[in-house]
Amino acid sequence: MSEAQTEELEDREIGPVAVLFGEGGGKYPDGNSLLVRGSRESVLVDPALGVERRSAALGRVDRVFYSHCHEDHFASGHLFPEAAWHCHRADAQGFESLEHLLEIYGYPEEISDSFRKILVDRYHYVPHAVEPFDDGDAFDLGGVTIRVVHTPGHTRGHSCFVVQWGAGGPEERLVYLGDIELTSFGPYYGDAWSDLESFERSLDLVRSLEAKWYATFHHIGVLEREAFLERLDRFETKILERESRLLEYLDAPRTLDEVASHRFVYRPGDAVFNAEWVERRSMGMHIERLVAQDRVEEVEPGRFQRAER
After folding, report:
1. Is 202 helix (H, G, I), strand (E, B) or coil?
2. What is the distance of C-alpha 149 from the center of its chain?
3. DSSP 40-62
4. 253 CB-contact burial (10 Å; exposed 0-12 / middle 13-18 / buried 19+)
5. How far apart are CA 162 and CA 174, in angstroms?
6. Which domain holds residue 113?
7. Is residue 279 part of a domain?
8. 20 to 30 A Cα–Cα from 96, which one of 2, 181, 184, 248?
9. What is the total count of domains within the chain?
10. How do residues 64-110 score in pLDDT, each as one tens digit?
11. Are residues 16 and 99 in the same domain?
């Protein structure tokens, strides 16, 4: 990369935190990483593709924190083999081997075979030992503390990080949200290790985390609290919108195949390699919940219809 190309990527300093914005504001497949510097240690959070273009300028990186084990979050992790790697123990198996990582996604064989190559060639997957953390664990970097907040739903181990410095009040606190990304797309819970209701509980939890600053991995970047709460409301509403549209569609008996083809997560016609799997996984959880609430009935094996009230 030329120097001019490197300068296109924006950094933002907030206290001891450098927000390292990816291309397009962290648009997938890139993302927004954090570099947190204390007097004793420095921590790199979610080393996305854009970190590679900055790696020579980052200085010493003692630890690498992962909000969860997904390809866009570890894409530049291979550049820091000597650093200690950390993620929540519920996602730690993803760093043990490529096969264990693929279990997190859960894609069928016809997708996994091609995705395996993408993970290695494009996202530089390498197995690496991980020191797992748990909810509530705190790391003192020297005048700066990072606290782990377990927020499952996107994956089983997805976690947010509360970075605190100075006197430790909300004015000196940043919450890194990972893939609670606050975009208009809405929450993603389309993998084998995703869970709809866990995601909803995690959204309630992050709402209670008081800070001045909130940073997302994709698109939105950095928000102050009022804007964060507004975005969070809209983000959460996407779940209810999908469920409402599903209920309308189930005015006649439908199979899960028909539901997946209709598209509730992605737009019809969007060329997404895993769209059918994501639709089946995501909307299957909605159907299960609606059946449990007696709002949808399985009128015959594998066919579902909105219940009459």
Report:
1. helix
2. 14
3. S-EEEES--GGGGGTGGGS----
4. middle
5. 6
6. 3-235
7. yes
8. 181
9. 2
10. 999 999 999 999 999 999 999 999 999 999 999 999 999 999 999 98
11. yes
